[in-house]
Recover the amino acids of this structure.
């Protein structure tokens, strides 16, 4: 009998079990789907910015859609065309300004309180909505149809605000009961406010109070003298 011991079989090392990989969990909050009104509001906001930056002609529905994070068909779900969207924005912004004038010029406070309050509120709107007023007052598109829409909206806004203008004592003396003279008085006020707004955009370091004071100095001093019965005659 042999004295050699049998060689033991090599031990097998246990095969390590691989734990199933876990999917990485995102810590970002789930993206919330916008409601239709919220999506429409976003499209209008983006369109205002683009129309103000580039003008009507250089702005496309595709670019509006890209910046809003939607597709062009989604934009068309809300607006029939670019012109329809542009008109909607004009009407919306002018409606905001009309309501502002109604709120600030209404009431029984003396003109010396209501008029500077209204002008300050107007420039506050300009300050808070830089794209809106640039679209209203600086975009001079050459397309006849778009210009016609712009003029129609301006005329509608003017007709709505004019009664507030006419209620001020002394306006009849400025206009001398003449329609053309009244239009000129309105244009003076409009030109001062819109011109200052455009200037202010390029000089943003100037505080709003100083801009309002300049507008009042240009408009109120002459108006106040008219209220006192003084009329300049050539």
């Amino acid at each position: 009998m042999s004295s050699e011991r049998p060689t033991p079989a090599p031990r097998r090392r246990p095969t390590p079990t691989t734990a199933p990989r876990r999917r990485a969990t995102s810590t970002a909050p789930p993206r919330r789907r916008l409601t239709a009104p919220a999506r429409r509001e976003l499209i209008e906001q983006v369109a205002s910015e683009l129309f103000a930056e580039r003008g009507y002609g250089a702005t496309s529905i595709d670019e509006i859609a890209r910046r809003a994070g939607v597709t062009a068909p989604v934009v068309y779900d809300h607006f029939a065309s670019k012109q329809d969207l542009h008109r909607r924005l004009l009407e919306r912004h002018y409606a905001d300004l009309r309501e502002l004038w109604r709120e600030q010029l209404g009431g029984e406070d003396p003109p010396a309180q209501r008029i500077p309050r209204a002008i300050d509120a107007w420039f506050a709107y300009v300050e808070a909505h830089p794209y809106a007023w640039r679209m209203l007052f600086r975009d001079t598109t050459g397309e006849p149809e778009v210009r016609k829409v712009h003029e129609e909206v301006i005329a509608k806004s003017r007709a709505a605000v004019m009664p507030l203008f006419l209620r001020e004592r002394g306006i009849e003396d400025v206009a001398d009961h003449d329609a053309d003279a009244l239009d000129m008085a309105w244009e003076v006020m409009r030109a001062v406010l819109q011109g200052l707004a455009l200037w202010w955009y390029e000089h943003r370091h100037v505080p709003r109070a100083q801009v309002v004071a300049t507008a009042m100095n240009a408009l109120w001093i002459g108006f106040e003298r008219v209220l006192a019965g003084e009329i300049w005659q050539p």
In short: Residues 64 and 70 are 9 Å apart (CA to CA). The domain at 82-227 is CATH 1.10.357.10 (Tetracycline Repressor; domain 2). The chain has ten helices and no strands.
